[in-house]
Amino acid sequence: MIFLNKVVKAYVDTEEQANKPIWKRMFLPKSKKNVIKELSFAVNQGEIVGYIGENGAGKSTTIKMILGIIPSDSGDISVFRKNPFTNRKENAQRIGVLFGQKSHLWWDLPLIDSFKFLQKIYSKNTKEDDEWIEWLMKELEVVDYANEPVRELSLGQRMRGEFICAMLHSPELVILDEPTIGLDVKTKQKIMEIILKVNQSKGTTFLITSHDFLEIEKVSHKIILLNDGKNAYQGSVCNYKEEYIYLRKVVLHDTVDADISIEGLKLFTQNVSSLEYYFDVREIAEEDVLRQIKKSRQDLQIEVSVLTFSEIMIIKGKEMKNESYNDLRLLSIQGE
């Protein structure tokens, strides 16, 4: 459904331009930097794909090219086996989009009026279309406030409405850009539940960008990690976790100043009343780590666990930035 092959996209480097003398800015070609660097990946029909990367990695630029808002500088992009830039209007009928920072809703109108207006735009006025919207409203629990002005709704209520707007024309492909940012736990859970239900019942394809790795892990068939404009990983969450299952986390409770110096043990994070370390069981055995910690501080309460998906990503991002591992095959992204 989505195919990118060695795609490159560059923008004017405004910072470098600002540092140039005026005559260079006027007469010489503008300096550019590649935001997307020979990016290649595929999204198949019926998949739920998590598209993950830190701010500035190139996620939004990728989405704009997929939607046909901007063209690529080189490489091949196809959506529904068509060039998305030259077939933007045609593809738009088959795509639903939700940007976390942009709205489909009319601020002063009741929520239901926004739904009806978008129905007219997409020519979705049949009985089946009405039943589809009613189902979405019921599932997302917006019926009770559907007649209230959008300006009086909470962020969570508005985002539920935004999600319905992206889904009301029964798109084959839905692109959600940070759909759960700033939302409460209940609203996040509701949106993720609907994604799974729609995917299973209609075979709808979802491409979701997010920093909330725990949510991505729950719903995605596979993940694509983007770093510095490049595809750093593409595969299932399960395979990713299995590949790095050798990492362990050690939590030292009731301390913030434990002087632990053990070869192979690295600091992960410092909390109010605990310190968290991690280590690689291929370098040092868990028993050796525990023995050396207890030898150094017998009074500490120690907890050892397997790292979560998001913790693995954070750690791998740190390691690559510090260049502490030269043989890593995967670059993960540190989330917010």
How much of the sequence is in beta strands? 25-35%
Distance between the termini: 30 Å
SSE order, one letter for each helix or strand: EHHEEHEHEHHHEHEHEEHEEEHEH
Rg, Å, rounded: 24 Å
Based on helices, strands and strand pairing, what is the structural class? alpha/beta
* Strand arrangement across the biggest beta sheet: 5-6-7-3-8-9
- What summary fits the major beta sheet? 6 strands, mixed
- Average the pLDDT over all residues and give the rounded result: 84
Taking pLDDT < 50 over at least 5 consecutive residues as the criterion, the unreliable ranges are 323-336
Tally the helices: 12
Give the strand tally. 13
Query: What is the helical fraction, as a range of percent?
Result: 25-40%
Shape, principal axes of CA atoms: globular
Domain ABC transporter: 17-253
Pfam family, one: ABC_tran
Keywords: ATP-binding, Nucleotide-binding, Transport
GO molecular function, one term: ATP binding
What would you note in describing this structure?
There is one protein chain. Helix content is 35%, strand content 26%. It contains twelve helices and 13 strands. It has a six-stranded mixed beta sheet with strand order 5-6-7-3-8-9, with helices on both faces. The model is unreliable at 323-336 (pLDDT under 50). Residues 17-253 form the ABC transporter domain. Keywords: ATP-binding, Nucleotide-binding, Transport. InterPro entries: AAA+_ATPase, ABC_transporter-like_ATP-bd, ABC_transporter_ATP-binding, P-loop_NTPase. It comes from Facklamia lactis.
